[in-house]
Amino acid sequence: MQRMKKLRLLEFLVIGVGMGLLEDLIAIAFATDATIDLRVIWVVLLVALPFAFLSEVVVDHPRFWEKLWPERKG
């Protein structure tokens, strides 16, 4: 059980935050003339963090869809 929690945390950090940060920085680099500096990275991180949490911790939870649309037994 403890191993699964560590694995989910690692998935959240690497996939959710890391890939979200990289994805947003690539979009900024191609879509704007902004210089990618520490300030831009900080803002992107603050924007990416809640979306990473939502997608990796909430939506990827094994019982998320069961709670959203419970099966009707009848």
Brief digest:
By secondary structure, the protein is mainly α.
Task: Give your account of this protein's structure.
The protein is an all-alpha fold and 74 residues long. It has one domain. It has three helices and no strands.
Number of domains: 1
> What oligomeric arrangement do these chains adopt?
single chain
Would you list the SSEs in sequence order as H and E?
HHH
SSE-based structural type: mainly alpha
**First CA to last CA: what distance?**
34 Å
Per DSSP, what share of the residues sits in E-state strands of 2 or more residues?
under 5%
Mean pLDDT over the full residue set = 80
Identify the overall geometry: elongated
Uncertain stretches of 5 or more adjacent residues: none
Descriptive keywords:
74 residues; mainly alpha; 3 helices; 77% helix
Topology:
Blueprint: H1 2-31, H2 38-59, H3 64-68
Helix pairs in contact: 1-2
